Amino acid sequence: QVQLVESGGGLVQAGGSLRLSCAASGINLRRYTMAWFRQAPGKEREFVSATSQRTGSTLYSDSVKGRFTISRDNAKNTVILQMDSLKPEDTAVYYCAASSGVIVSQMRSQSGYDNWGQGTQVTVSS
At 124, is the pLDDT very low, low, confident or very high (cuts 50, 70, 90)? Predict the structure, then answer.
């Protein structure tokens, strides 16, 4: 019933930008905390960014802070991840996730999210 579909991934040179989107169906994103995670080759999935449904506040991992921006487009029921100043170490599959009831301390954890997209590949060349 719930579907999250990521798009916008691709190949970009270091220093460039990409804009990822996560389109949701079956849920109203106004009522969900939304997050982005990523998984690089040979590494575990890691937290990237999140936006709270309760406060609208945003949260970023230290590795992307100042370079990535998460936002919502409520009219389109989507969440956006704007990625600037991309680095080769940003190369990964990026996943969108949604939670109907996550507390602040759980926002960085995969276990706090109920629904996941299939991912979109981001490749940053050196």
Answer: very high
